[in-house]
Amino acid sequence: MERPATVEEETTDHLTGLTNQRQFRRLLEGTLLPQAHQSGDPLTLINIDIDNFLEVNETYGHSFGDVLLTAVAGALREVLPETALIARYGGDEFAVALPDTRLDEAFTLFEEFRRRVAALSFSEHPEVHVTASIGLAAYPTHGKNDVELSREADQAVYVAKVSGRNKVSLPLSDSRMVTKTSYYTATQLERLSQLAKMVKRNEASLLREALDDVLKKYNDRFGAPPRG
Q1: CA distances for 36 relative to 23, 25, 28, 188, angstroms
Q2: If exposure means fewest CB atoms within 10 Å of the residue's CB, which of 31, 88, 154, 157 is most exposed?
Q3: Most confident of 9-13, 88-92, 178-182, 201-205
């Protein structure tokens, strides 16, 4: 007689142990978005697509593809806070919901994740280098329900893909869609990450501090502030 499915099997991905797509959508729609609406707290949705995964799978086999996906899932667990809802969405796609997290904070987290994925190495196939295209969408700026947010995050993944892959991007509708990796060199981003760890601050706050310093430096060029 066939063994009945357990609750764990119904809600988790058997390969990575992450939440599965059905449970992710259920929790996003039924719990996380209503909580964000009621509290007024931010929420960011992230879609992730592994670049050129089909080619890797066909070249090195499905077993190695599974190893790669498991490593990416591990990087997500390492980088993201315990409050994150992380899912394998199917195939080479992952999704994350970050409650109480602003878009700029999520951007910084996923820059770190992107770097960790790009740094992955595999002893059985050291020639394989993995990258990820990542799209972010914020509630309620980019969508007021799970369908709208997913569509905007998917669009942001497309922006990352067509602009060269290995990027973190925002939806086309967002005027800030130029990625952080387009503004800064890889060396600058790596040193920013190291500094944030040394001083125990997040990268976004350090960038804001740097911007404040630049504005103060050129403050005399702005002229006198308006009266009243």
Answers
A1: 18, 15, 10, 34
A2: 31
A3: 88-92
